[in-house]
Write a structure and sequence with these properties.
Strand order of the largest sheet: 1-2
Number of helices: 13
Structural class: mainly alpha
Number of strands: 2
Largest sheet: 2 strands, antiparallel
Radius of gyration: 19 Å
Number of domains: 1
Distance between the termini: 5 Å
Order of helices and strands: HHHHHHEHHHHHHHE
Helix content: over 70%
């Protein structure tokens, strides 16, 4: 049996600074996404915001990518099932379920659950595309996880006793599964597909996948997104930064260095969230946050000092 074929990318000991920069940018974009959505969660309908995000993203991108989209239509059509699965996993499962979870769960609980994603992505990348981390890189993953835990738990393990899990935690867990599946799927696509064409196609498919959820939200549950300048600004932000810039950076990063190494950059999201809270909201920076950020940065650096070993064929 042969491991699934991937579409190239960095291997061995290659240091791909372009991929690293794009993945850092992605973490920053997604941190802002989480902050904005949580800030106005009471006036946001999860499926509705997710759906209109996909509509706006496609409308913005289409005039710029139409020529390339038409030129690459053949390769897109030959991989349409995989592209639909990527869009569905990213938007209908990942984003919509996270937004739904944030309606009822706390940021602390969501942070703990989201912290599982990089490790789960590593496991799925090994099962689906034959990637495995070297022992020293596994140490980096664990180190970054410890850093994230230090930030989330505020440096106090005793705070675990105070957690109360609600239905929102389940939805956040579903989002984690969707995003973890998404990364290995992207790795299996041909590198010839233009990154912006790929985002347009997957976002369109994600919008289609969101239609039944959106319809159920409006006609069955009677939940609507309030039409205000604030909600419009959020949709614009998550379309431009959360989708166009964030997802393009994420896709390129995965294609160049693989889902296992790329997933470790997700640990930067709590770090950026702390930084945004301190600089933009005037919150106090605590020592446990500094220690956690140092551990995260050290873990990401260790994991990405060397490439991922390819699993041998059998």
């Amino acid at each position: 049996m042969t491991t699934p074929t991937t579409s190239g990318g960095a291997s061995g000991n290659q240091t791909d600074w372009t991929a690293f920069a794009l993945l850092v940018m992605t973490g920053l974009c997604w941190s802002g996404n989480t902050v904005f959505v949580r800030a106005l969660h009471e006036s946001i309908a999860p499926a509705g915001v997710s759906f209109w995000r996909t509509v706006l993203t496609v409308l913005v991108l289409l005039p710029f990518v139409f020529g390339k989209l038409r030129a690459q239509f053949g390769v897109l059509r030959s991989h349409w099932r995989l592209i639909f699965m990527i869009g569905f996993a990213q938007f209908a499962v990942g984003q919509a379920m996270l937004y739904l979870g944030l309606q009822t769960t706390t940021a602390v609980n969501a942070g703990l659950i989201l912290g599982v994603q990089p490790a789960l992505t590593v496991i799925l990348a090994w099962l689906m595309v034959g990637e495995r981390l070297r022992p020293i890189q596994s140490v980096g993953v664990v180190l970054a996880l410890v850093g994230v835990s230090a930030i989330i738990l505020r440096g106090d393990l005793g705070s675990l006793h105070g957690f109360e899990f609600v239905i929102g935690d389940i939805w956040v867990g579903v989002a984690v599964i969707g995003w973890s599946i998404y990364a290995p799927f992207v790795r299996r696509l041909p590198r010839e597909i233009d990154p912006f064409v790929l985002v347009t196609a997957t976002t369109f498919c994600g919008g289609i996948g969101l239609v039944p959820f959106y319809a159920g939200e409006v006609y069955w549950l009677g939940i609507h997104t309030e039409t205000t300048w604030e909600t419009f600004a959020i949709i614009c932000y998550i379309a431009l930064f959360g989708t166009i810039l964030g997802v393009v950076g994420w896709n390129i990063g995965i294609a160049r260095i693989g889902p296992s190494r790329a997933s470790t950059f997700l640990y930067l999201i709590p770090v950026f969230t702390v930084v945004l809270g301190v600089t933009a909201l005037g919150e106090t920076l605590h020592m446990y946050q500094v220690v956690g950020m140092v551990l995260v940065l050290a873990g990401v650096t260790i994991t990405n000092r060397a490439g991922v070993s390819r699993a041998s064929t059998s």
